[in-house]
């Protein structure tokens, strides 16, 4: 190569060569610079999901979740909670299921008090149904759904941690409120919490459901819910209750495992008493718990099996809030 | 059909018919009875693994575990612990790794004090090495190994629960003692527990190792351990330390996930002070922790990467020991 070039008159060749090699060197430096910038930093030991990222619309479908909150007759609580939840890390969007039939949503007021960290969509309903929140909303862009009752406040720390747990157990309902069913010798099931006898496996208690009023689950289960027997919808509509029990049946059937993973909340609050509406939740109705036992048995009839399975796994956050919360006298 | 039969003389035909139909009916009843007996009882809601079963040699390889306990110069503690551990539910066999070179094992005395719930095998070693306990013992018949230090007492309740957790996370080291490494700006790693700064992911602490001196893990990892670079064995032999750190590197490399799952123990005790031998554990040596930081960095060199990953999942048993241990002010 130099051969050919070397034939050119000495000085001209020299300048041309100089120019040529300079360009080559500059190009090589640029390429090297680009490659260096693209080199992955050694991050093997960092847990990618826990890093705090600025909230943007481009948060991937896997790294963020959609809050679905159904509301009836407690708009003051709704707005208080929206102010809290709109700023939760990894939140992508809020869907408010508006069960106040015929009443205007607070959308105008919401917009006038913008900007807001995330979009909030008000889905106006035509009938006040408990199962309205279980529609397969086209507004959903994330894999994960966070479903919250409109009177429940869970701290950002709890939600951030529970979301990271859901990411490790995406086929489960990962949430803060565990419940169980028990069998009785008659074959009739009963529904309850820890006050109910344990299912008899030795030590401690077991849970077989995690309530969806404070939990993360995969949006695929909303799709699945649309494919259930009519009798399930009729049951939920008849009782205005039990949509969460039905969801646990659905998930347990799908996975063949316990439907839920219980994350022990550090700071969860019921704001019912704070409402000015005078309306207190459905669970205050006298027949509420009896209805839920009724629902368990009806669902076993409808599905012709008891798919719920027990778990005794309780998950907490290592070193939080007390950095030595795992210590023992050794 | 009756046509043909009806042709026979009335009385004879009648008796034959009677006999025939009786036989048919009896056969049908027997078949129905057999079918009823074979019908599965509705057991969908029972968790098979938690049921207390009588200990027999025929406990399947999946439903039981082998305890491997290495011992040096603390035979009094060993025997105290053997009396405790021999009666743990789901225990299949005990392997005692006898590091008291040249000294007779207590096998004779053990046998004279039989019968025992499970077989105990004493593996006499020729050299007192920390990594003796990580051999791929042919005596192992179960998938799960429980490895315990010879000065650590963990309650049966804790072990039964942790074993059930291991069965749900069989590729992890499921145990009671979490530790972590941290990066420093110099690129040099340090080893420690919660007193060390957290790795900086926001709230709380993280762990990246679960020590094998009180943990369940899959026997496959003992096989894997035999395939490691010579430098790893040299490191462990040089320090008489760090075999557990090496195992965590191995597991993390294998899974690409955090190596361990931490189960918070309710009742774990260090019996060191109870020994008459005057011998206290290796971790009392002045250089112990510095050695372990040294090991982390050496292993990163040997493997040319840092495979350890962080987790902040802490698992406890729902409703045990306090049946309301999951309750919150709501």
Automatic annotation (TrEMBL), chains A, B:
Which cofactors are named for this entry? Mn(2+)
Q: Which reaction does it catalyse?
A: 3-O-(beta-D-GlcA-(1->3)-beta-D-Gal-(1->3)-beta-D-Gal-(1->4)-beta-D-Xyl)-L-seryl-[protein] + UDP-N-acetyl-alpha-D-glucosamine = 3-O-(alpha-D-GlcNAc-(1->4)-beta-D-GlcA-(1->3)-beta-D-Gal-(1->3)-beta-D-Gal-(1->4)-beta-D-Xyl)-L-seryl-[protein] + UDP + H(+)
Where is it chiefly localized? Answer: endoplasmic reticulum
A single GO BP: N-acetylglucosamine metabolic process
Record's GO cellular component, any one? endoplasmic reticulum membrane
Name the keywords, alphabetized.
Disulfide bond, Glycoprotein, Glycosyltransferase, Manganese, Membrane, Metal-binding, Signal-anchor, Transferase, Transmembrane, Transmembrane helix
> What EC number(s) is this enzyme filed under?
2.4.1.223
InterPro entries membership:
Glycosyltrans_GT2/GT47, GT64_dom, Nucleotide-diphossugar_trans
The regions listed as transmembrane in this protein's record are 20-42
Which principal EC class is assigned to this enzyme? transferase
The source's domain of life comes to Eukaryota
Q: State one molecular function term (GO).
A: glucuronyl-galactosyl-proteoglycan 4-alpha-N-acetylglucosaminyltransferase activity
Its membrane topology, per UniProt? Single-pass type II membrane protein
Transmembrane found in the keyword field: yes
The Glycosyl transferase domain covers: 65-320
Location(s) in or outside the cell: Endoplasmic reticulum membrane
Respond yes or no to whether keyword Transport is given for this record.
no
Q: Name the family the entry cites.
A: Belongs to the glycosyltransferase 47 family.
The UniProt function text for this chain reads:
Glycosyltransferase required for the biosynthesis of heparan-sulfate and responsible for the alternating addition of beta-1-4-linked glucuronic acid (GlcA) and alpha-1-4-linked N-acetylglucosamine (GlcNAc) units to nascent heparan sulfate chains.
Identification of the protein by name? Exostosin-like 2
Source species, please? Oxylabes madagascariensis
Q: Which gene encodes it?
A: Extl2
């Amino acid at each position: 190569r130099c051969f050919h070039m070397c034939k050119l008159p000495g000085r001209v060749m020299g300048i041309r060569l100089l120019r040529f090699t300079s360009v080559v060197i500059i190009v090589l430096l640029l390429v090297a610079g680009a490659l260096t910038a693209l080199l992955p930093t050694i991050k093997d030991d960092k847990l990618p999901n826990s890093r705090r990222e600025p909230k943007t619309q481009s948060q991937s479908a896997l790294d963020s979740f959609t809050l679905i909150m159904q509301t009836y007759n407690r708009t003051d609580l709704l707005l208080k909670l929206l102010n809290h939840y709109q700023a939760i890390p990894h939140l992508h969007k809020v869907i408010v299921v508006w069960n106040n039939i015929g009443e205007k949503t607070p959308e105008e007021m919401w917009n006038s008090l913008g900007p807001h960290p995330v979009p909030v969509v008000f889905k106006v309903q035509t009938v006040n149904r408990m199962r309205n929140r279980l529609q397969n909303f086209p507004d959903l862009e994330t894999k994960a759904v966070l479903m919250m009752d409109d009177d429940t406040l869970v701290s950002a720390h709890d939600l951030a941690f529970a979301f990271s747990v859901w990411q490790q157990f995406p086929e489960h309902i990962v949430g803060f409120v565990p419940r169980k069913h028990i069998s009785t010798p008659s074959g009739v099931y009963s529904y309850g919490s820890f006050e109910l006898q344990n299912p008899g496996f030795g030590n401690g208690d077991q849970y077989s459901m995690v309530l969806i009023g404070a939990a993360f689950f995969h949006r695929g289960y909303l799709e699945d819910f649309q494919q259930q027997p009519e009798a399930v919808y009729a049951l939920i509509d008849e009782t205005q209750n039990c949509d969460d029990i039905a969801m646990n049946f659905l998930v347990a059937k799908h996975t063949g495992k316990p439907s839920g993973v219980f994350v022990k909340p550090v700071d969860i609050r019921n704001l019912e008493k704070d409402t000015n509406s005078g309306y207190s939740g459905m669970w205050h109705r006298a027949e509420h718990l009896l209805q839920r036992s009724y629902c368990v048995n009806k669902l076993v009839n409808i599905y012709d099996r008891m798919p719920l399975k027990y778990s005794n796994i309780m998950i907490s956050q290592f070193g939080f809030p007390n950095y030595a919360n795992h210590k023992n006298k050794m």
